[in-house]
Amino acid sequence: MREITYAQAINEALREEMRRDPTVITMGEDIALIGGNFGVTKGLLEEFGPTRVKDTPISEDAIVGLAIGSALVGMRPVAEIMFSTFLGCCMEELFNQAAAIRYMSGGQVQLPLVVRTANSLGRSGAAQHSGRVEAWFMHTPGLKVVLPSTPYDAKGLLKAAIRSNDPVMYFEHAMAYYKVKGPVPEEDYTVPLGVADIKRPGKDVTIVSYSLMVHKALQAAEMLAQQGIEAEVIDLRSLVPLDVDTVVESVKRTHRLVIASEECGRAGVCAEVAYCVMEKAFDYLDAPIQRVTAKDVPVPFSPPLEKFMMPEAEGVVSAVQRLLR
Q1: Which of 164, 148, 156, 153 is nearest to 98 (CA)?
Q2: What pTM did the predictor assign?
Q3: Can you tell me the distance from the alpha carbon of 31 to that of 178, in angstroms, rounded to the nearest whole number?
Q4: I need a labelling partner for 167 at 20 to 30 A (CA). Which of 34, 107, 115, 156 fits?
Q5: Closest CA to 156 of 231, 235, 226
Q6: 228, HSE (Cβ side, Cα atoms, 13 Å)
Q7: Three-state SS for 248?
């Protein structure tokens, strides 16, 4: 297998699905002529033309509205919203329309729609460009929510999302696009939605994470290994469907759980995972569940302040140490 970047893996997934299925189209701000703000869609316009790769106005309402309409008449649109914080601009389309159409039609209407967007904490983008809003959509029935951490998962999950007949919120990470590389096969494959992956086995504590935070969890596991602590690291990969069983089975072996995420701690993904484990594996826990998250404040523009409010590997290590005291 080749080593390619996270961005290249996403580009390959889009290109292969557009070649495989002529109903797959993509639209978004600057995705055609310049290949996207992060260069993820480079080359698609030249291969597929402006009817299938469309630059849009700077209007998230228009982008998602166009995508929903396209899906309703038989296309498989992939809409790009440049930063996940901007999803607040098109919540009516997502929350009231995309999430509800299949249910309200009694299953007569499918909505095969993917919304690609980027979380971007760590780039000094300040409050309006540093969103981690996946919990909003985890809380919205009717939407699937996917957050890959590796190039292999990014490609396989995006291909599976495009082939799904339900709307999928697909969260990438801007810090991963060109910094995260990994092996990706050249042959066609998909990664099923709703199946977590054990990125590192261990017996002393379970660390659950997703997206870029998985890499910090793995870094923490390496630091813990030097102390003789074997941490199992689980990558959720998708939040809806949520693979609770893999987490529960791990906790039954390790008896301790740390959940790490870049989101704000209050009422988030970590809280939901913690409740699911408490409900199904409470008797196996030897210590209270710990969570490691960003601080509940707007994201500062100042790099030192942003770093201060972000969760890091050292915070995961400290949480594990608290459990094992």
Answers
A1: 164
A2: 0.97
A3: 17
A4: 34
A5: 235
A6: 1
A7: helix
In tens, the pLDDT along 96-143 reads 999 999 999 999 999 999 999 999 999 999 999 999 999 999 999 999
Domains and CATH numbers, the chain: 2-184 (3.40.50.970), 197-324 (3.40.50.920)
- Tracing tokens 């969890």 back to the chain, one arrives at 217
Q: Residues 287-290: contacts with CB within 8 Å, 24+ apart?
A: 287/255, 287/256, 287/323, 287/324, 288/323, 289/257, 289/258, 289/259, 290/257, 290/258, 290/259, 290/319, 290/320, 290/322, 290/323
- Of the residues 129, 139, 173, 255, only one is catalytic, namely 129
The packing angle between helices 269-281 and 244-254, to 10°, is 60
Tokens of 195: 């199946």
CA distance readout (Å), 26 to 8, 36, 113, 295: 16, 11, 10, 35
Sheet with 144-146, strands from edge to edge, namely 53-55, 24-28, 76-81, 114-119, 168-173, 144-146, 238-240
First-to-last C-alpha distance (Å) of the chain: 42
Query: Cis (ω within 30 of 0) for the bond into 241?
Result: yes
Active site residue 139: no
pLDDT at 68 over 90: yes
